[in-house]
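Ticket #4471: structure output looks truncated?

Reporter: J.K.
Steps to reproduce: submitted the chain below (287 residues) through the standard prediction queue, then opened the result file.
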Amino acid sequence: MCMSSPGHNREVIARRRERGLLLLAVPALLLLGAIFAWPVLRLLSMSVEGGTLAHFEKAALDGLYVSVLLDSMKIALMVMGICLVLAYPVALWLSRAGRVGLALGMFALLLPFWTSVLVRTYAWLVLLGRNGVINRTLRDWGWIEAPLPLLHNTAGVLIGMVHVLLPYMVLPIYASLLRIDPDLPRAAEGLGAPAWRSFLRITLPLSLPGVSAGCALVFVLSLGFFITPALLGGGHVVMVSMLIEQQVREFLDWPFAAALSTLLLLATLAIYALIGRLTRGARLATQ
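Returned output as attached by the reporter:
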């Protein structure tokens, strides 16, 4: 009589568990397919309506649309970089803070989520205007004589977008830092390594997965942002999402809007892959 080995039994149990978890995920996958995959496929089909690539040629060859796409990517990269510089120290502090400091930090970080993006953007209109709170305060203190141009330009758009998207960078980095064994930096310092070397050789490389996730998330959200650039840019800063909305609302040109959306999706996927590759390369270089 043939007896099964314990290792074989564990593999069988693991396979059954995986199949069970997959069955539990089927409703969610069907829901995602209905509300996400199908609209994307419908959009792709509209972009080649009539069996022609004329809309893609117009979007890829016309200097106006190419310029808007490049400007959108530049703004998204700038927002991603600013968020990374601001978010990493905050995430590092949160990962090492006590219970009270962590509670207060998380409250301050998550508080903006309780307010609509539209409301927060209008608040920045009040703060950044020529007679807004910031310019008025600086004039009252005698630091400036003329109002600073903080609105209806790239600076205002960057300020508003960074404010909205900063938590999306902090949280993945914070989660990645929490997974680092605290004994590793302590062991390095106990062996004589200074704190900065311990950070560069241990903490930073091990936190790069969170950095990669945060950068990808912020970049993807920035590239498709609409409300904040439309209001704080005042028509002087045009992003590709605004161009797509204009094609649909004013010109009713759905196929061309679909082509622009497809190009935006492809650009997003390409940059996402590049961020992941650069992060993996940086991690290997620091090891």
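Triage note (M.O.): checked the attachment and the full token line is present. The chain is about 80% helix and 0% strand.
Status: closed, working as intended.
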